[in-house]
Amino acid sequence: MRIVAGQWRGRALTAPPGQATRPTADRVRQALFDMLMHAPWGGRGLLDGATVLDGFAGTGALGLEALSRGAKEAVLIERDPAALRALRANVTALGAGERARILAADMLAPPLASLPCNLVFLDPPYRQDLVQKALAALKSRGWIAPDALIVAEYARDEPLPAMTTLAEREQGAARIVIWRSV
Q1: Cβ proximity of 2 and 13 under 8 Å
Q2: Helix 81-94 crosses helix 61-68 at what angle (to 10 degrees)?
Q3: Of the candidates 13, 39, 9, 14, which has an alpha carbon nearest to the alpha carbon of residue 176?
Q4: Span 146-169, average pLDDT
Q5: What secondary structure does DSSP assign to 37-61, as a single string?
Q6: How many CB atoms are closer than 10 A to CB 29?
Q7: Fewest CB within a 10 Å sphere: which of 16, 45, 108, 162?
Q8: What are φ and ψ of residue 172, in 5° steps?
Q9: Does residue 113 register a pLDDT over 90?
Q10: Is a pLDDT exceeding 80 seen at residue 38?
Q11: Is 4 helix (H, G, I), strand (E, B) or coil?
């Protein structure tokens, strides 16, 4: 697994052993960031200087990819000890420490936000209805800026909640869904 593009293009990322963490594959991240850069509602300005939240961060691949491509800051929230070790190793290896803030916290009970994020990545374990629960918790704690872009990964066959989406793509076992917060 590697950073796909930007400042750290080609740099390897560490993943914890076992199946508890399911890192977003390189090809899925490439497809996702292509959508973000080329969609009518996206573009270069979406990432340039953005404050990004990578929830259920795991290895930090989504947040670190955003930093590599021009985001100003990424907050990476993870609670699993093995994933946190890999996440810290990845941030250190990339020299991203000044721009990447790691929070060892539960996404369903996050701490108060110091700054709302305008781009939110959520890649929770599949089929546990965690996206909607995490969004409610994040909103109540001030993490989501008005009109923020939300990017969530679901299992391909997982039912989606009723929402108006900007884009939806299937990649292997994953379904990426993008919408604006309300």
Answers
A1: yes
A2: 20
A3: 39
A4: 92
A5: HHSTT-SHHHHTT-EEEEET-TT-H
A6: 24
A7: 162
A8: 60, -125
A9: yes
A10: yes
A11: coil
The amino acid present at 146, given as its one-letter code, is P
Q: In this structure, what token pair is assigned to residue 10?
A: 């080609």
Long-range contacts of 164-170 (CB under 8 A, 24+ apart): 166/39, 166/41, 167/35, 167/39, 169/31, 169/32, 169/35
Mean pLDDT along residues 127-148: 95
Give 130-139 contacts, CB < 8 A, sequence gap 24+. 130/56, 131/161, 132/161, 133/108, 134/55, 134/56, 134/107, 134/108, 135/181, 137/107, 137/108, 137/109, 137/110, 138/53, 138/55, 138/107, 138/110, 138/113, 139/181
- b (16+ CB within 10 A) / e for 65-104: bbbbbebebbbbbbebeebbebbbbbbeebebeebbbbbe
176-to-69, 95, 128, 165 alpha-carbon distances in Å: 19, 28, 16, 10
> CA 34 to CA 10: how far, in whole Å?
17
Six-digit token string for 9: 């293009």
